[in-house]
């Protein structure tokens, strides 16, 4: 059992106001951590390796520009794949933007479409095509989820991901967008008054 | 298709396991056995530990009735997040819940039709604005949002519930949007 990551990143001290608040939703507290454990200490690496998990997580955390969260996942990447740290850092710098944005397919929503960048990782040799495709997809999910498509999934499958691997990568990215927001929200609430 | 309170279907872009192919581990991960009929949950069951944790987190954030934010406003935060991120399917489900529990279907429909900036009363305004700020990447939730929530009468637990409900829909929207489409 690892330390509760949300507590660590949001600086929730035992017995504090935030600690007592989190205890009012005990299953959410416990299972947010269990999701983290399932994603980062998985039963099997058959579909998604530890290095791939660490690299995608460091990329997604870096895109959110929350220093504590970004450092946590950068440190994990340094443990699992020190050789990828500099590459992922450079990808993050080039991939950062402001979201959510995206074009709606639905004609009734066309006037709400916000056109923005679609990212394609630049260092594909260093990353390998499989991981590069996962980073491209992670950027889509973080910034322009409304532009998701059947073709985007086909690109992942063509890069060597299985259906189960796509599910795990999607969960990993989506979970992180939750975790970083809970951390930011709790930290703000804890600093208030 | 536009944002609606109507019941929509959802079709996956990847083939989920068939109902009769689900193992005990898959079924445990569904939490609610009836979800074996849903292609969305059967697809997510391919990573059973994560699905189980996802669903248990979801259920506590939305259904835990030990004080805190009324269910209607947890659903409002989910609807506003889904509206802003662009998840037509998620918004349809949670708009129906928000309308049902608040008994304010017209206000919910205005959020769907005219978007997150459409006029609302002070309390809903504060909740919607917080959800929208939290949905931004990088995050944009700040002291002003917290002050508006407090001015509208929300206490710490209610604000924590807003944060969790809105944050959770950033998770849910991205799965629902990226693995299939409303049908």
Report on the structure:
The complex is a heterodimer of chains A (193) and B (183). Chain A is globular, with a radius of gyration of 17 Å. Chain A has helices spanning 5-10, 17-23, 26-40, 50-64, 67-80, 85-95, 124-127, 129-143, 150-158, 163-191. In chain A, helix 4 (50-64) runs parallel beside helix 6 and helix 4 packs parallel to helix 8 (129-143). Chain A has one domain (5-191). Chain A is built from ten helices and no strands. By secondary structure, chain A is mostly helical. By secondary structure, chain B is mainly alpha-helical. Chain B has a domain at 71-170: AhpD-like, CATH 1.20.1290. Chain B has nine helices and two strands. In chain B, helix 1 (24-30) runs parallel beside helix 3 (48-63), helix 3 packs across helix 9 (156-179) and helix 4 (71-85) packs across helix 9 (156-179). Chain B is globular and about 50 Å long. Chains A and B meet through helix 2, helix 3, helix 8, helix 9 and helix 10 of A and helix 3 and helix 9 of B.
Counting structural domains of chain A, the number is 1
The H/E string of chain A reads: HHHHHHHHHH
Reported for the largest beta sheet of chain A, the result is: none
- Proper CATH architecture of the domain at 71-170 in chain B: Up-down Bundle
Q: Encode the helix/strand succession of chain B as letters.
A: EHHHHHHHHHE
**How many β strands of chain B by DSSP?**
2
Mean pLDDT of chain B: 98
Low-confidence regions of chain A: none
Global structural class of chain B:
mainly alpha
Helix content of chain B: 55-70%
Q: How large is the radius of gyration of chain B?
A: 17 Å
Q: Uncertain runs of chain B with pLDDT below 50, 5 residues or more?
A: none
Structure annotation, total helices of chain B: 9
- CATH H-tier superfamily of the domain at 71-170 in chain B: AhpD-like
Oligomeric state: heterodimer
The separation of the N and C termini of chain A measures: 33 Å
Radius of gyration of chain A: 17 Å
Largest sheet of chain B, order of strands side by side?
1-2
